Task: inverse folding
């Protein structure tokens, strides 16, 4: 049977005549929107015998393949004699300066439409009109006439390079497929729960549904999830796998798991997308004038061909390849992701409307998603879908622009007009259920005109992008998902269009892919997470797995201590004494986890004052990568004396770090981890209360518990680990918290220091 490949006329034309520079993504997006408006304006001027937006499609057999070419001509006139096709291109240039054959891809697109209409309608002559138009009404039109046979020849010629490319992709898929089918599980045996997890992932992809999986630490989630998804890929249920993470550490685990599978015969092409600022060899703030952006499309194809021959494209290999071809490594990674079997990347590339990968996530696709540490997704989605603008920042940028460009420059005047809408001298902090229309309109106008002024100053360029994004969010603003938060500054307002409930968006995003598995060690209560993450459809499933490790390897203790804001100073010494008792019971490395930097620092100082010769370290805010690494390296196996590391719940050392074997012996968790009060969080509590009465839990209890369980999850990572989790807060005695504890924990209450010392002594003497 012949293989059918679908391609749009535009993609085919661009593929045949690929050349040019990189355009920053936000500007490209704004041009696309302008393009739609420009098309609509021109289409209203058409004579009545012309039809706007006419769809066309035809299967073209070439060799052993069939190319299904489809598209939508901007305008069409057709009779028995002739097909006339109009192709409209909006431009920010003066159309009078564009020569007839400056853009061969534009002609090719019109010719492809004309060829398809001639073939479908049996017409022998065609005319292509190519119209360049600016939004201000200026335009230039060129026409060209053809015979139908001539158009067919051109169509075949344009299809050639595309088919050669597709053949490479197909050949790889064929070679990879039988290794996917034959792939054994990458470990000698399944750990308890791994088989169920792999099956749940496979079924989610097979049924094009979502699976929510809570799997305790140590179960081997990454390998199980990838294994299930790869089997679905081999069976053709999904066309590519996206392993999505919230942190870089998760990405490395996925790369390692794939390496293990490659060792067992798997032929798979994986690619890791690294953030632009991390992979850019120039470390610039902006890309304007970059040598790797100039002529990017002239050199891209050769690099992509080479990428097809590499099974593992991690950051290092991508950078080498990009430097060899003098290309932007970040853009190259996005382009190469289109033919990778497994893409390992941040959540953003699947869910953030600003940066998500168009091919897979702008419309429907059959990509399979693996969402690692899915407990982070709702908060991340809130940020992705919100937009904010600061009046104070705008005022500062306007001052800067006035210095460089003069007070009367168009950009400075435009900024001044926008600033007037942000005047907040009389304002109070408030949360609005409706859009602040005056501000939204001023931003919309600014974004539209500012883009045409084509600013070059990186900070102003960024501000224009932010204004464009603000306008896009304003369009999707609705009362069920959004609030406008107005915060007065000294003189100007800060305005945030805040998406407090991203579930509708996430549900839609999940429904448009081939299937998704969202997993984490902390998804309790599952009904709440299913609803919040949009994974509560009829076909969706939930799975909760038991810990594979012996229960007796964990000593979970609950110690009542008043650690609320008003009690902290009074109980600080007692908290330090409890932590010290834990560390003194047996030489080992321990975590002391606090809900805030301020509390942690206070406790660290008090501890050092009380035991000046103890080995203690303390997390700092904004630690650079090297300092973080040095911090982690202090956790050496089998230490001769105890080390206590003071860290913050929810921070970089409380989640996503792996300290297996005896590199960690215990974690004392001070407080229930509930986040600090803030205007936004209070709003969340009120808004979610309106919906189902569970506002406090959703805004405070569950996020807090998540942070606690993530930190506690550092203690037992393998079957050989033994360790202590010490929960220090009066509130852990409440029924609500008892019900939320992991089922594999046997929590023991200790009220006095003597009971604590005894429990620790017994635990360590029993297990050695
Ligand atoms: S290489 Fe760096 S500066 Fe150049 S386009 Fe890419 S990200 Fe921008």
Result:
């Amino acid at each position: 049977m012949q293989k059918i490949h679908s391609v749009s006329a535009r993609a085919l034309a661009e593929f045949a005549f690929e050349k040019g520079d990189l355009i920053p993504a936000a500007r490209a997006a704004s041009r696309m929107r302008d393009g739609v408006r420009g098309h609509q304006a021109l289409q209203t001027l058409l004579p009545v015998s012309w039809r706007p937006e006419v769809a066309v499609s035809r299967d073209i057999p070439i060799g052993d393949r069939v190319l299904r070419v489809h598209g939508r001509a901007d305008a069409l006139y057709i009779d028995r004699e002739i097909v006339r096709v109009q192709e409209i291109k909006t431009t920010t240039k003066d159309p009078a300066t564009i020569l007839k054959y400056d853009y061969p891809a534009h002609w090719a697109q019109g010719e492809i439409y004309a060829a398809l209409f001639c073939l479908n309608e049996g017409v022998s002559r065609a005319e292509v009109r190519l119209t360049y138009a600016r939004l201000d009404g200026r335009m230039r039109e060129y026409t060209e006439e053809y015979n139908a046979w001539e158009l067919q020849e051109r169509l075949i010629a344009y299809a050639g390079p595309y088919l050669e490319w597709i053949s490479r992709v197909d050949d790889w898929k064929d070679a990879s497929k039988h290794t996917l089918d034959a792939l054994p599980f990458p470990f000698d045996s399944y750990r308890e729960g791994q088989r169920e997890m792999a099956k749940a992932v496979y079924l989610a992809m097979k049924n094009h549904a979502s699976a929510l999986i809570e799997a305790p630490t140590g179960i081997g989630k990454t390998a199980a999830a990838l294994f299930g998804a790869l089997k679905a890929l081999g069976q053709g249920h999904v066309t590519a796998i996206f392993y999505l993470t919230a942190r870089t550490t998760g990405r490395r685990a996925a790369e390692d798991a794939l390496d293990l599978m490659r060792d067992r015969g798997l032929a798979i092409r994986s690619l890791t997308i690294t953030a632009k600022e991390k992979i850019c060899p120039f470390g610039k703030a902006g890309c304007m004038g970059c040598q790797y952006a100039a002529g990017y499309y002239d050199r891209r194809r050769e690099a992509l061909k080479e990428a097809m021959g590499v099974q593992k494209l991690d950051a290092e290999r991508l950078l080498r390849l990009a430097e060899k071809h003098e290309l932007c490594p970040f853009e190259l990674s996005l382009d190469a992701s289109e033919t990778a079997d497994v893409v390992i990347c941040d959540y953003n590339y699947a869910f953030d409307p600003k940066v998500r990968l168009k091919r897979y996530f702008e419309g429907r696709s059959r990509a399979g998603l693996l969402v690692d540490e899915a407990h982070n997704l709702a908060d991340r989605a809130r940020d992705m879908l919100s937009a904010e603008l600061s009046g104070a920042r705008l005022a500062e940028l306007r001052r800067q622009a006035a210095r460089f460009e003069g007070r009367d420059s168009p950009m400075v005047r435009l900024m001044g007009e926008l600033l007037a809408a942000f005047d907040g001298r009389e304002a109070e902090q408030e949360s609005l259920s409706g859009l602040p229309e005056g501000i939204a309109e001023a931003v919309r106008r600014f974004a539209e005109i500012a883009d045409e002024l084509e600013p070059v100053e990186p900070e102003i360029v960024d501000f224009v992008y932010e204004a464009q994004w603000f306008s896009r969010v304003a369009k999707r603003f609705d009362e069920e998902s959004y609030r406008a938060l107005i915060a007065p500054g000294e003189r100007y307002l800060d305005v945030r269009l805040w998406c407090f409930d991203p579930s509708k968006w996430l549900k839609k995003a999940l429904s448009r892919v081939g299937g998704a598995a969202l997993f984490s060690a902390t998804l309790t209560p599952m009904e709440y997470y299913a609803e919040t993450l949009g994974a509560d459809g009829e076909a969706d499933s939930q799975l909760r797995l038991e810990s594979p490790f012996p229960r007796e390897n964990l000593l979970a203790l609950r110690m009542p201590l008043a650690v609320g804001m008003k009690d902290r100073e009074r109980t600080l010494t007692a908290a330090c004494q409890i932590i010290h008792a834990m560390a003194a019971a047996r030489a080992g490395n321990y975590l002391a986890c606090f809900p805030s930097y301020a509390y942690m620092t206070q406790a660290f100082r008090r501890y050092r004052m009380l035991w000046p010769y103890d080995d203690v370290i303390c997390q700092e805010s904004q630690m650079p990568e090297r300092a973080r690494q040095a911090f982690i390296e202090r956790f050496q196996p089998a230490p001769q004396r105890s080390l206590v590391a003071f860290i913050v719940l929810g921070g970089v050392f409380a989640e996503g770090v792996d300290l297996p074997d005896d590199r960690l012996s215990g974690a004392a968790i001070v407080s229930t981890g509930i986040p600090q009060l803030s205007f936004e969080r209070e709003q969340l509590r009120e808004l979610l209360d309106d919906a189902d009465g569970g506002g406090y839990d959703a805004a405070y209890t569950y996020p807090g518990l998540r942070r606690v369980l993530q930190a506690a999850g550092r203690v037992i990572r393998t079957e050989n680990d033994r360790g202590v989790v010490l929960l220090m807060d009066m509130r852990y005695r409440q029924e609500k918290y008892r019900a939320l504890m992991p089922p594999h924990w046997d929590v023991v209450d200790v009220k006095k220091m003597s009971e604590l010392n005894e429990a620790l002594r017994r635990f360590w003497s029993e297990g050695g």
Observations:
- The chain is about 45% helix and 20% strand.
